[in-house]
Design a protein that fits this description.
mainly alpha, 5 helices, Integral membrane protein, transmembrane
């Protein structure tokens, strides 16, 4: 491998890692925003199906839509600020815990809700893990 090839690999590796992080954030934004839109548009039927109620679905839908848009804006940045990415990761770690606590303490989920709520929590946790790993790789490549 020539010196030029090594130098090119060093400059493209951080960019590729940053692209991976941005794509994970963008996917998170699309999934979250899509859920938010569905919760808003179908609040009554989904609330009945999941056992969460219409008001809860409207509130969650509005929150998820705004959060998804914010994550999308972050993903669109050429180099997302580390602090903002960490905030997304932290929020994605808190969501599953709050979802399961709400399922046990406040909500009266139907069978569909008992399946959907943990499934959604696991998906959000997966985003957090993947985003954390991607951020670590970006930070390591910057050193």
């Amino acid at each position: 491998m020539s010196a030029n090839t090594v130098a090119a690999a060093r400059t493209t590796a951080p960019a590729a890692r940053l692209t991976t992080l941005r794509r994970l954030l963008a996917l998170d934004a699309v999934v979250t925003g899509g859920n938010g839109l569905a919760y808003l548009a179908l609040a009554g039927p989904l609330g009945d199906l999941l056992g969460a109620g219409t008001t809860t679905m409207v509130d969650l839908g509005a929150f998820l839509l705004v959060y998804g848009l914010a994550v999308g804006v972050l993903a669109a940045r050429r180099q997302p600020p580390v602090l903002a990415v960490r905030a997304v990761i932290d929020a994605n770690l808190v969501w599953p815990v709050l979802s399961l606590v709400a399922m046990e303490l406040w909500l009266e989920p139907t069978t569909a809700g008992l399946v959907w709520i943990p499934l959604q929590a696991a998906t959000v946790l997966g985003f957090a893990v993947l985003q954390f790993a991607a951020l670590r790789k970006v930070r390591a490549a910057e050193r």
